[in-house]
Amino acid sequence: MIVKVCGMREPGNIRAVERLGADWMGFILWPHSSRRLGAVPCCLPQCRRVGVFVDPADEDVVRWSADLGLNYIQLHGDESPARCRQVHDLTGLPVIKAIPVSQPCDMERALGYRLRDGVAYLLFDTKCASRGGSGQQFDWSLIQSYAGELPFLLSGGIGPADAHRICQFRHPLMAGVDVNSRFESAPGLKDPALLKTFIHQIRQYEQNQQDIL
Questions:
Q1: I need a surface site. Which of 16, 30, 36, 104 has the fewest CB within 10 A?
Q2: Distance between CA 124 and CA 154 in Å, rounded?
Q3: 128 part of the active site
Q4: What is the rounded CA–CA span in Å between residue 118 and residue 158?
Q5: So what CATH class is 2-212?
Q6: Catalytic choice (106, 117, 125, 162)
Q7: Of all helices (H) and strands (E), which one includes residue 126?
Q8: Residues 45-83: tens digit of each pLDDT
Q9: Domain map of the chain by residue range?
Q10: Could you confirm whether 6 is annotated as catalytic?
């Protein structure tokens, strides 16, 4: 299971979180976020790097992709499938498209995004007035109706106490989880102790499943 830790910013915190075994690390590049990355950190992680944008201008996507050596572009705004394809073509990078979820019809919207649009993953997040980071969860049972072609990450208010529930959640296209605000001691600063326990519980469950097989 992919564990993506989003909203990273401080060099020391980046190093500490990577040592815990995070698979992907997200850098928020939306100017209105309290977790916005304003400049390239003096150290960058060796794990997969995700740039998080909201309805970005072409030049911003291209510049940050090069400066951060991104592996994925996460689009967290109102980007259409056609816009996802444009961003993919501009950068040569696979896209993660965030889908805000609060009701069953949101799963229908998710079906509009396809691999042919350059979208490699969806990310199901809690629908709220802001662009994520609400710390609130949506009803995960809504995802059970999703029957698209793309794998997805589960996001939205996932906290330290949710590891067991995540491990018990079943969907054939679930690829991982995205965590952020509920693991913070301050915006953009993750608590390594909380993440260490959470990641260990996820990995321990995976190992137990391997042992059973």
A1: 104
A2: 5
A3: no
A4: 27
A5: alpha beta
A6: 125
A7: strand 119-126
A8: 999 999 999 999 999 999 999 999 999 999 999 999 999
A9: 2-212
A10: yes
